[in-house]
Amino acid sequence: MKCPFCGAEDTAVADTRLSDDGDVVRRRRKCNACDKRFTTYERAEIQLPQVVKKNGLRTEFSRLKLRASLELALRKRPVPIESVDAAVADIEEILLSAGEREVSTQQLGELVMRELKKLDKVAYIRFASVYRNFEDVDAFSRAIREVSPSPKKK
Q1: Eight-state DSSP code of residue 47
Q2: Are 7 and 14 in contact (CB under 8 A)?
Q3: Pairing state between β 50-52 and 58-59
Q4: C-alpha R_g of the chain
Q5: 0.90 exceeded by pTM
Q6: Taking the domains of the chain in order of start, what are their residue ranges?
Q7: Has residue 154 got a pLDDT over 60?
Q8: Which residues of 80-89 are buried (b: 16+ CB within 10 A; e: fewer)?
């Protein structure tokens, strides 16, 4: 590791520590040339897929956009922020484990709908009405029946 102060390549690791959650390594280093100390951080580089829009354009996956979509659907709903965090993490995990280099907005929308269905039925219907572009009341009714509990048989 090059010294940021003098540019010398001869540096030594003085101390190594893991972060509290264990996904970042913090290293204290000392330059053998100028004797100055500095800190480096090491973390795993993860590659989320590119998002392919309906018009064929490709864009970087954005955790912020994903979160904003969930939060918009969940606006004024009694869902804890921790649940939203978990939903975002679940979607990212699914995308990472798939190992694909690209994901369509349709696939991403289906993942969001699956998470919203687990979190809050009203938010699911809100998102579905925009995502599926309901044309009439019948389409809306079908979506509501989809999340409504079926009547119990006696």
Answers
A1: -
A2: no
A3: antiparallel
A4: 23
A5: no
A6: 11-43, 50-147
A7: no
A8: eeeebeebbe
